[in-house]
Amino acid sequence: MPEAVKVRKEEERESSGPSVAVAGAADKVTEKWQQLRQFLHEVRVEMRHVTWPTRADIKSTTVVVIITIFFFGLFLFLVDFGVGRVVDQMFKIFRP
Question: What are the residue ranges spanned by the domains of the chain?
């Protein structure tokens, strides 16, 4: 009896050759498409929950950023200029 079962399994393997592999690949492809569609649907749902800034908010924060950039640019320029002067004076003092 065990031999009959063995023969049956071998026959099933032979009969379920390439067609099963193709069906398995097709299932994987359709599954990936379903996952992609689900992902894009969830993205769309989440994007509806986003609170977007108004034009006035964007303008005000842009002005703040530009002023901050100019302030720190001037600050770093003055610090660099001052440190450069101190280093030049030290070279003049300690020059042989």
Answer: 1-50, 53-96
